[in-house]
Give the backbone structure.
Amino acid sequence: MNNEFGKIMITGGAGFIGSHLTQKLINENNEVVVLDNLSTGNKSNLKSCIGGKNLKFIMEDLKNENQVSEHLKNIDTVFHMAADPEVRTGFSDPKSAYDQNIKNTYQLLESIRKSNIKQFVFASSSVVYGEVEIIPTPETFGPLLPISIYGGTKLACEGLISSYCNNYGIKGTIVRFANVVGSRARHGVIWDFIQKLKINQKELKVLGNGKQTKSYIHVNDCVNGLIFASKHTKKSVDVFNLGNYDMVNVLDIASIVCKSMNLKNVNIITSGGTNDGRGWVGDIKKMRLDISKLDSLGWNPEKDSKSAIQKAALELI
């Protein structure tokens, strides 16, 4: 067994990013317990791992605090990936975002402080920064003023994690993801475009003005960076940006998806969204994280944003 993390629990380990993380850690000979309520995840995402001696799958909801506490016994490291995965749904249902992100994280931290957990790794998001004037945006930027409910809940979780780690001697790693793309995704711009084009190959509607420009990272790079960051945490709580060196706008993504599906002369229409060109309320127009902190430690993504999008489109078709 790999003893760097000890025995690992991954919340949301059957989800999009969580399942790739599970697979990677098991390939590195770690013992992993996946805890997932399968609300958005799927056991089929773990088909390469299920049945192996290094994986135990537990179908459980984080809201069930007593049961979760029992499952945490003998765990050394927790990767907390479980969350409401959609940025845009927080506007119409903020309570769900609160329950799934803030409340569940609080209850998980309460259970962890009463156990012998040594390390806690949290999947946060670039949206905690809100709309900023400094791009690329470093981890030291502040104040953090998220413009989406999702971003607000992720920032609240960061605050809880920082306080719990500092108070109870837990090593904490907070990793802020750029837009993650790749196989097993069931939401996000690429997935949405593919589903629309499967229905109508002649026309593709893009929410907003299509000029929203952001960094994208392939899920393989994402899990590699997440593990790398957690291995290089030096402080009681450390924060890392995890993204790319470049950006791509939504109209370019639409063109890449059309090309990947061998579709020509698709009429791409910008419509809906908000009056100022966003795809939805809380959508950030421009985002690129400064990843020089991880770069200086020896990590960088293998694929740039455009290559990540091209690979993800082919994987999802």
Summary: The domain at 8-180+216-242 is CATH 3.40.50.720 (Rossmann fold). The chain has a mean pLDDT of 95. The chain has nine helices and 14 strands. The radius of gyration is 19 Å.
